[in-house]
Amino acid sequence: MAADLQTDVLVVGAGPAGGVAALELARQGIGVLLVDRSAFPREKTCGDALVEESLNILAAVGIGDFVRERGHRIDRLRFWAPNGREFHLGGDFATLRRRDLDALIVEEASRSGARFIGEVEVREPLVQGGTCVGARGTDRKGRTVTVAAKVVLLATGAGARVLAAFGVLQEKRPPAFGIRGYFRLPAVEDEKAMIFAYDRALLPGYAWFFPMGGGLFNVGWGIIGAPPGRIPKDRSQLTTVLPRSRQVARLFVGASQESPIRAAAMRTGCRGARACSAGLLVLGEAAGLTFPFLGEGISNALMSGRLAARVAGKALEAGDVSARFLTEYEREIRCRLHARHQGYLAAERWFRFPWVANLVISRAAGTPALGRLTREILTGQRDARALFSVGGLLRVLLGRLGPRGGWQRTPVAKTP
Ligand SMILES: Cc1cc2nc3c(=O)[nH]c(=O)nc-3n(C[C@H](O)[C@H](O)[C@H](O)COP(=O)(O)OP(=O)(O)OC[C@H]3O[C@@H](n4cnc5c(N)ncnc54)[C@H](O)[C@@H]3O)c2cc1C
Predict the structure, then answer these.
(1) Is residue 297 lining ligand 1, measured as CB closer than 6 Å?
(2) Is the pLDDT of residue 38 over 60?
(3) Does residue 121 contact residue 137 with C-beta atoms inside 8 Å?
(4) Quick check: 287 and 15 in contact, CB under 8 A?
(5) Between these two residues, 400 and 321, which has the higher pLDDT value?
(6) pLDDT per residue over 339-367, tens digit each?
(7) Among 197, 282, 322, 371, which is disulfide-ready with 80 (CB 3.0 to 4.6 Å)?
């Protein structure tokens, strides 16, 4: 097939998933072309929060030091219940603007031998005998570009159109959205904690206040469990809806807005698109890997990027890019994430009820065993159904939280 460019692996989308995949492929000595429709560096609408798992993966791929230097260190999460009670959870977190994080990963991938081309929008696959053998798109001047590749990694985020064009889309409408802007918040003194405010009117979503350092905050609203496909057209709702909550209003006193307010979709719950087909792997948000309930997705995007690089490398070595061979990727994603996603979907359902949010957050504040369980859930050692189930909530309600209370016996849900 005549093509403008040829490569072993074409990676479409240079967010954390595509960037890390390109980096890991290049380090294996595999020819890799990474394209993105944006010129880099570019903004990405995000809360900019890096959880422990994200920091660990970034360290494992050799860019942990930069993130620590450029990012803002956070040592606590603060969860606010609708009734005003608060629960603190210590840990190792950071914030770093996505503009910087994503550009850094792309630079590292380029240094490792990947070729990066910005302002190329991929529109459709090249297909031969049912196998994806590359992609066709347009460059910034509107000229058609075709790339022939042995394997294509689709890491295009939440947009449905490109997933449909590649034949992997299962659900068009994303299940969650977020709105965010940057603000100076003189009323907030604590710049070492990320605040999650669960106001009654926002449940099961929440307002977030993430310090970026130097008095700047990423402020957002995670619209979770809303009727699918409804993104608020009026972005100023961030500054009109959130301050209706008394707790949140206090944080906005004297606030100044430092950026336009932007909204974006989230694909969550390991659903919405198939993770592989012949010659093709789907990574990160495109495969629905952002966690329901939390809206945290950078860690899974990074993890899927590394995994996809490994499986694509093996497929090239074996000379077999069939769907059957590449299914290893889908299987492993399922094994690592299915139970955690199901757990957060359960949390999302329960957190619609303000009494559940009040109960869990209030009790966690005074009960070390519940604090530990929350930490285990957030770090992936437990699935959230250990807490967000009839049995789990009954144990919280009855105060049966100690070693004999049942949690220690709750098996970690795993999909084989
Ligand atoms: C408001 C909001 C707040 C969030 N906050 C957090 C948070 O604080 N922490 C966290 O961990 N997660 C957060 N998330 C989730 C997180 O943003 C995603 O999980 C993460 O960005 C997924 O990474 P990705 O690489 O899969 O996709 P993306 O980061 O979306 O990257 C996709 C890339 O593909 C490119 N692209 C798209 N289509 C094409 C095409 N056709 N051709 C070429 N290029 C294309 C895009 O330009 C983009 O660069 C948030 C999400 C939202 C919406």
Answers:
(1) yes
(2) yes
(3) yes
(4) no
(5) 321
(6) 999 999 999 999 999 999 999 999 999 88
(7) 197
The finding on whether 180 has its CB within 6 A of some atom of ligand 1 is yes
Is residue 247 within 8 Å of residue 84, measured between CB atoms?
yes
- Is this model's pTM higher than 0.90 or not? yes
Which structural domains are found in the chain, ordered by start?
A: 5-47+99-173+268-321 (3.50.50.60), 73-95+176-265 (3.30.9.100), 351-409 (no CATH)
Phi and psi based region of residue 261 (left: phi greater than 0; alpha: psi -120 to 50; beta: remaining): beta
Residues 82 and 354: beta-carbon distance below 8 Å:
yes
- Looking from the CA of residue 298, the nearest atom of ligand 1 is 11
171: Cβ below 6 Å to ligand 1? no
Measure 44 CA to ligand 1 centroid, in angstroms. Answer: 7
Residue in the block written with tokens 């889908």: 330
At 123, the amino acid letter reads R
Helix boundaries (H) for 292-322 = 298-318
Q: Which of 197-206, 245-254, 275-284, 370-379 has the highest mean pLDDT?
A: 275-284
Tell the residue nearest (CA) to atom 38 of ligand 1: 156
Residue 129 scores a pLDDT above 90: yes
d(CA 225, CA 269): 12
The tokens for 162 are 């490109």
Nearest to 128 by CA among 2, 313, 309: 2
Q: Is 404 exposed, middle or buried (0-12, 13-18, 19+ CB in 10 A)?
A: exposed
Beta strand pairing call for 72-80 and 193-197: parallel
What is the distance between the alpha carbons of residues 377 and 371, in angstroms, rounded to a whole number? 10
Q: Strand pairing partners for 116?
A: 34
pLDDT of 401 over the 80 cut: no
CA gap 289, 303 in Å, rounded: 10
CA distance 200 to 351: 10
CA of 17 to the centre of ligand 1 (A): 9
CA angle 50, 55, 60 (to 5 degrees): 150
d(CA 239, CA 375): 31
> Which atom from ligand 1 is nearest to the alpha carbon of 265?
53
Dist. CA 143 → ligand 1 center (Å): 26
Stretch (H or E) spanning 259: none
pLDDT for the residue numbered 232: 66
